[in-house]
Amino acid sequence: MSKVTIVDDKSWAWLLTKHADIRNVLSDNEHFSKVRTRPNFPELSKGGRLAAMSHKPTFVDMDPPEHTCQRAMVSPTFSPNHVAEMTPMIQEIVNQQINVFMTQTAPSSDLVANFALPMASNVMYRILGIPSTDMAYLSQCNAVRTNGSATATQASAANAELVAYLKQLIESKAKNLTADTNLINTLIKEQLQPQKIALDDLVQVVFLMLVAGNATMVSMIALGVSTLLQHPKQLAELRADPSLYRNAMVELCRYHTASALATRRIAIKDVTVGGTLIKAGEGVIAATQSGNRDESAFPQPDMFDIHRHFDDSAHKSLAYGHAEHECVAEWLALTELEVALRSLFEAMPKLRLAVEVKDIKYSAPEADVGILELPVAWK
After folding, report:
1. Catalytic residues, which ones?
2. CATH label of the domain that carries residue 151
């Protein structure tokens, strides 16, 4: 554990890198808080600090019981049983996007822009109940917000635009509520109409569902294709036995932990973690990427192994967090990833990289782990 400077005004935080220390902090609501408006919360930039102070929080930035209450509103949609019911819909969208991708006449194409992004976006739009006529506009707006090259002003404007769009959409749906069981309709019926939640709070819940995992899923699809193509023996095993895919997806998300520094807390009481005293008011960054490469939890951690065991909490991937704030859509994400990768390799037996591995364009070191472009060929 060490102290690190996090923004240019010399603010600092404790950086946790050990798997056990990260698990302990993430499961300790008595000593640590997720609320970003608390003084000295470890934001990674001045823009992040400004956003935390000026925007209404989503439930991922709340502590219990507020977090528990809002999370419970959406958790049934992402339960294993409901995800199983949605899997044919996911498969349909994946198949449609593969068909579009394969109709391109160029000898190679960017898998990120032409498959991963539209596929992941369309799945979430369908779950939420976004009208198909709005998909092109909404994808463009969201892309600005999640694009690392966007300025803070552009990102803030896109953020506000998305919130305004969702508020108008929810109000319109509430006035003409249909029998469709999409998530927005469900939240209107079960939360807004009985006045269990205010409109602005509901907008923030839907906003979170729309943007939280989209960029990460896009990145993981590209990382998955690239990684499996670089491990042809393990890819051959998956092709021979698709039942291995689920564990392989868990390993993939351990091996490439996309949101490396997003897991942060502020100490609200003095506490000792890993032999170090963390005082109330000091920030903590749980580097889940480092925790997922901790050899005390994962033997040979730098090796990609689709047969790796994740059999208890001491050997659990931290890719989707831990304890109360573990990603509510984890099962959906793993299912999407599995369906997408399995279907790509089944539909395109000759799928291969169209660039040298050394020429793959990865995201900047200070950003979340991802691939910006992945040219592939399949003919």
Report:
1. 216, 259, 327, 368
2. 1.10.630.10
